[in-house]
Amino acid sequence: MEEKYTCENCGSEMIFDVASQALKCQGCGAVIQIKNNSKDITEHPLTLEAKQRIRAGEKKSHTMECQGCGARIEVDAHSTATQCPYCGSRYVLADKQEDVIIPDGVVPFQIDNNRVGELFRQWLKSRWLAPGPLKNMYQTDKVQGIYLPYWTFDAHAEADYTGRGGRHRTRTVQNSDGKTVTQVYTEWHRVAGHIRHFFDDILIPATNSLSLEQLEKIADFDTGQIASYGPEYLSGYNSECFSVDLEISHQEARHEMLERLESMARNEILSRYDEADSIHIQADFREESFKHVLLPVYSTAYMFKDKVYQVLVNGQTGDITGKYPLSPAKIALICAAMAVIVILIILFVIS
């Protein structure tokens, strides 16, 4: 969904600049501030008919489909082929063009490519089981900033819970040898309670291009920094269309809310007892709402010995996650060292 902006002073392209959080000319350095009105960030009532209106007439981009992993990305309308930010393969114009649902908000990128390079190199240095040559694999031109689609959900929750609370007790008994010993046991009690809680901005990924395991590791986004949507934020970046239906994401959000309510109930029980067990939650959710937002992620893929490895960086916080190859030589060295230690222990015991 990238839109091109041209500088009125020199005619050069303007793209979103992380440092100024504004559009900046690549030629003369002129800066244009981006309007951000929090009143424009809409929370939509979550009803059966809840669908954000599609503005097909405002679409100024193409849906591109990766030939390698199948990801569907929104890029500039004039693009015919480019590199996938997920797997590094080429992607081409999709046969089926999709209408774009205009996002309700966006978290702008807070770190730039230079900082991503520093984070990547630090991350590699801490992977001490990785092969040595891997430390030279970072390539700036292989890193792509992409806005990933997410749904956020709000809800007022009222929950009744039941469970068991256990108190640790001691008693004096005689063992089989006739000796008096102190025995610790748990005295269980039925408990019940009520929880009232407001869930704000439960984030659910609306993409199938990346695994949930990967996304969870960089998912610590601060939704308090969501800005009202403006295409200016996307200038210089790619963005992905949502590929997970609202209804499915809502079910995932409900599941997460129930897990959190169970954790709250457990903590309440543990505030009065030593143990908590057999917790059951009966919850009612009211005034549910949702919005569609774009969140910033840097993605890079590198090839090592004919295998592709992907690394993701949270474009707001700098959190990083990725996969990397293991060095057989280093693993063999560790195994040998452990074997030597075991042999020394055995020799010490024998002697």
TrEMBL record:
User: Which residue ranges traverse the bilayer?
Assistant: 331-350
Would the keyword Membrane turn up in this protein's UniProt record? yes
The protein's UniProt keywords, in alphabetical order, are: Membrane, Transmembrane, Transmembrane helix
Q: Which domain of life is it from?
A: Bacteria
Protein name, per record: TFIIB-type zinc ribbon-containing protein
Organism of origin: Candidatus Eubacterium avistercoris
